[in-house]
Amino acid sequence: MNASSSDPSASLSRAGMPHADSPIHADAVAHPTRLPADDPSIAIPLGPRAWIVVTLVTLVMLTILPRANEWREPFRPSDHWRQPTEAAEDYWQFRRFERQVVRDGAIPVLGDSAVWGLYAKPSETLSAELSRRLDGRPVANLGVQGLSPLTLEGLQSLAPCDSPPLLLFNPIWMTSPRRDLAAIAETSDLARLNHVTLLPQWFDLPPAYAPTLEERLSRSADRTLTIRQFSQHLRIDDLGGRDLPSWLREHPRALPWQGFDDRVLAPADEPGEPVRRRVPSGRETTYDWMEPEESNQYRAFVRTAQRLSDRGALPFVVVARLDPTGRSESCLEQERKIGERLRSELAARGIPSLRLESGVDKMADASHPTPDGYRSWADELIASTEFGRWLASRSSSPSLRSPRL
Amino acid sequence: MLFHTWTFAFFFLIVWIGYVLMRRGPLALPWLLAASYLFYGAWRPAYLLLIVYSTLVDYVAVEGMARTGRRGLWLSLSLINNLGLLGLLKYGDFVIGNLDSLCVALGLPRPPSPPGWELPVGISFYTFQSLSYTIDFWRGRIPRESNLIRFATYVAFFPQLVAGPIERCSSLLPQLVERRPIRVDDLACGASWFLVGLFKKLALADQLGAVVDRVYADPSRCDGPTVIAATFAFAWQIYFDFSGYSDMARGAARAIGFDLMVNFRHPYLATGLADFWARWHISLSQWFRDYLYVPLGGNRVGAVRWSVNILVTFLASGLWHGPAWTFVLWGAWHGIGLVALRPLERRGIWNRVPVALRFGLVQTFVLIGWSMFRAGSTADLIELVRACGRWEGIPDVLPLGSLLMILAVWLHQGLSESRWSRLVRHPLVAGSLAVGMIVYLAVVPLAGSSAFIYFQF
């Protein structure tokens, strides 16, 4: 019987596939090493030379694209601009903001949500209050929500600050092994880790952070490759935190490029609640303080300050205080000791600092001041001779004379 | 360990460097075997016991055939072992579940509960690959492989271990003997394949998956056009997913100097059902052809017997995909289609039908088949059919952007099989596509990726 076209065997044979009756090892003979261009099964037949060209063109495009986007998406931060909450992990935008701050000759203030101003409007934060007290000299709010000293260290390796900054130390990160990432209270804590990309991935990992190899490699790539940060920027800034396919599913009639606009995500003006001082609950608050020698966050903070100093961007460290309401004497004493220990360690490294005394009665929660609290902090800083000296010295800083853009 | 992960990139770099350094030495094969076992063990180290067991049984079976001359006995041992293990792990729950339903219906005592074993990833693929060795030796078509390490490497060769292509020993074993030098062309070719596969998986398949899942999760809430659009999306999702895996497997193998067989050849350009099966999952089609269809008599029998052979082959192929009636139905659908089309083909009627119409009919037929394949259960399948009776307007389940990408791929494939093939294969066009794919993957925010669909088979 003739092989008909409905016979898979016949079809396969016609298609040039080896047949079961083939002699031993016939397939190996029929599989010569072919040049890509001759292989019909390959969709993009490229030889070695073509691949070199493709690689070069790709590298050029990947370099140009983020820069072209800066041109497409102009960024003119307003006086009290701060990174929006939903863009807290947009490190590409953070870096752009930081560069702009250096360009504008502003004083950057680095830190977590206590710098960002969780319970304050952009015009009521520490940076805004300082700016007002310095006769309108620009002071930039580079605080990022959820940024612990450990992740601040990662952010500084990803987007190093080239201008001497004000650096805020928030002792809240040392108030328990869990906050210090020294221990996990619950398995679900792992899912709640902030800014995991910025945590150490290979050496000195905090005990609470146990990434898989895939997570380490992927996050290392995110930290190392600007194009990955740019991709994350597009996701956050243009697609509302979604990936493009999800955005397309929500906008089924839209074309892919319509998802990308030329606006930078702007921060909302409203603070979170409460904006007034919190009411004491009557219960005693206890903290399971970490010792500085054992604290991951403390050590990371000192390293960051040192690195900034080594790079010629001598920071001024502001040691914040926590709300003393309902806390025992020993607890307050431990916080004081940690503050003093940090100050002396920084002083030994030539880094100026100040432990805030004011504002503790103007806290919205344990570590975030109310707008009144920020005013007190700014007043205290302005009154400080050390801060004045640092301000004077930073004006003559070599990094400010020739900012790296 | 998935191809589209950083872990694989890291793993492959180490394996590649090690293999280049040891290629001619005695450690080359142990190195490849260790890499393959590490690759497989990354899913679950316990699975390694199964693959080692299968390898040893088939190696011993062939040794037994060669030394004792009792070839039938040793072949039976291999068949019972391989198919028994596959049957137990893959179909145990299915058989007991159906038996349970039957007993309930007949009022008989119910069988014990299904064991609920997890299906080891890739077991269907490496079992078939290993089986082909014992059967081919029994048939006298290949020589005995006395080197256990080489045979184990053949069974577990990491690029194609978990989802094929299902290689034959006549193709892969000689390459493991030869271990030819790796040339720059191999790297270029491997990179081309791998990039295409990666793009298919990450940029296309995974994105379509969300569209499909949304509809197939609850077909009762959908109308006909939505079901059709989702099934169309699934047809391309499974193609991009599986052929993407095959491309990456071929690319990885080629980069270390091994050629794996073509597994897909533009199946959605088929203008006949046999043509479709000559283009879709070629290594599995060939396996069933050589080890089931041909032994049953193939096409060297009468029309009725031929029809039975085709039906049996396609039912087995359907069942191979998974322990569910939907897969059996899918296999039967294609078997019946081939049988029904045969008279038209023998009388030359089919070939007189305009190509565009043949193309449309075949694609529609295949699409209907995919709805059976994708349906979660026979009850869902019935819901799908019911949904097709409802019409609530133009569906918006498949985004315009995704549709345009599918059409672009379809057009590219069509052109590459037309007289314009030299144009689409021109280095300038191919290079532009490569740059576009890399830039797209690097820049465009994409959803988190998932495992390959065929891993579950």
Summary, kept brief:
Chain A is mostly helical and 405 residues long. Chain A folds into 2 domains: 30 residues; 322 residues, Rossmann fold.
Overview of this structure, please?
The complex is a heterodimer of chains A (405) and B (457). Chain A has 405 residues and is mainly alpha-helical. Chain A folds into two domains: 45-74; 80-401, SGNH hydrolase (Rossmann fold, 3-Layer(aba) Sandwich), CATH 3.40.50.1110. Helix content of chain A is 41%, strand content 5%. Chain A has 15 helices and five strands. Chain A has helices at residues 8-14, 26-29, 48-72, 91-104, 113-116, 126-133, 149-158, 213-224, 226-238, 244-250, 296-310, 329-348, 371-383, 385-395, 398-401; strands spanning 107-111, 139-143, 166-169, 316-319, 353-355. In chain A, strand 4, helix 12 and strand 5 form a beta-alpha-beta unit. Chain A is globular and about 80 Å long. The N and C termini of chain A lie far apart (78 Å). Residues 1-35 and 400-405 of chain A have low confidence and may be disordered. By secondary structure, chain B is mostly helical. Chain B has two domains: 6-181, no CATH class; 185-443, no CATH class. In chain B, helix 3 (47-68) runs parallel beside helix 5 (123-138) and helix 11 packs across helix 12. The longest helix of chain B has 36 residues, at 71-106. The radius of gyration of chain B is 23 Å and the shape is globular. The model of chain B has no long low-confidence stretch (mean pLDDT 91). Classes of the chains: A mainly alpha (405), B mainly alpha (457). Chains A and B meet through helix 1, helix 2, helix 3, helix 8 and helix 9 of A and helix 1, helix 7, helix 8, helix 10 and helix 11 of B.
Give keywords.
heterodimer, A: 405 residues, mainly alpha, Rossmann fold, 2 domains, 5-stranded parallel sheet, 15 helices, 41% helix, disordered C terminus, B: 457 residues
